[in-house]
Write a structure and sequence with these properties.
Layout (H helix, E strand, L loop, with lengths): L3 E5 L6 H9 L17 E6 L3 H10 L4 E2 L2 E6 L14 H9 L3 E7 L15 H32 L3 H18 L11 H8 L9 E6 L10 H13 L2 E5 L1 H9 L5 H7 L6 H13 L1 E7 L4 E7 L4 H8 L1 H5 L1 E7 L1 H6 L3 H6 L4 E3 L10 E6 L2
Parallel strand pairs: 1-4, 1-5, 3-9, 5-6, 6-7
Antiparallel strand pairs: 2-4, 8-9, 10-11, 10-12
Helix pairs in contact: 1-8, 4-5
Length: 365
Amino acid sequence: MGFKCGIVGLPNVGKSTLFNALTQTAAAQAANYPFCTIEPNVGDVAVPDARLDKLAAIAKSAQIVPTRITFVDIAGLVRGASKGEGLGNQFLANIREVDAIAHVLRCFEDDDITHVEGRIDPAGDAETVETELMIADLESLERRVVPLEKRAKGGDKEAKEQHTLMAKAIALLREGKPARLAELSAEESEPFRQLGLLTSKPVLYVCNVDEGAAANGNQYSIAVEEMAKRQGAGCVVISARIEEEVAQLPESERPEFLAHLGLEEPGLNRLIRAGYALLGLLTFFTAGPKETRAWTVTKGSRAPQAAGAIHTDFEHGFIRAETIAYDDYVSLKGEAGARDAGKFRLEGKEYTVQDGDVMHFRFNT
């Protein structure tokens, strides 16, 4: 299981440059004019995880297979998008299809790159986009809630439950707050997600800074970080231009290039980790002579669900999960050492998968 993250923002903030770097392609045209991205570009990229190499070396694997993440580069939004301005209708439709939003904010000054509103104010840009999404959500809910209310009053239990959830979202939106701030019980989370609200999706603010601010950020990114904290949103600082340059370098030259800029790793790594945290994802592994592979499930997943990430038959016929914690697998040099040290466990259907677990599933065919 991976997830689909939409890259959004105003025109000319660096969305397509970031997308090009992420996918190591020039599939998205990066040009200095609005709407250079008209159709959403989609790219699958491998999730970098240093643990894979260590596991593969111990298991003497012939192949390493990372898990993957999908990024969607979505056309730039402008004020009035909720009313169809610019490419508004298309923009909103594309956002509905993603699991999370990476909101790219311009945190750099450059007279050669125009700003659609003529000023550098990343927090203001974020508010512009969020407002358009909130307006679209509110209009959608107000249309849908009227017939639902009639059914709820008529005794329809499902309609009553939906009406309660919609009422929570409407109350927030009318206060100028996104739907993701709704207080929900565990049972309400999935039905609320199914309402398909744009502002219910988790948000990660991506501060696109100039090369000189890539290591420590700048006054603009600091303002965004403070805003993200108030909202409970994620935030990463990245120089899309640097990421694009790194993507074009041979693998062997990248560490030296990054070190010269005061960076320990590519921004992509930080972006993906932040995305994982945002959606509550974790990674487990399978390791053997044939391959070492990373798999992704949501936090709280039980062992059968993890088995199902590999193949639905594994979940349906689940018996046990042979499980070794990553640190134990590495320190004890593999499965044999883990067995001898008593760190090899047989877990049942109620076992909650932990990040880094090395697993092998027993199942009935």
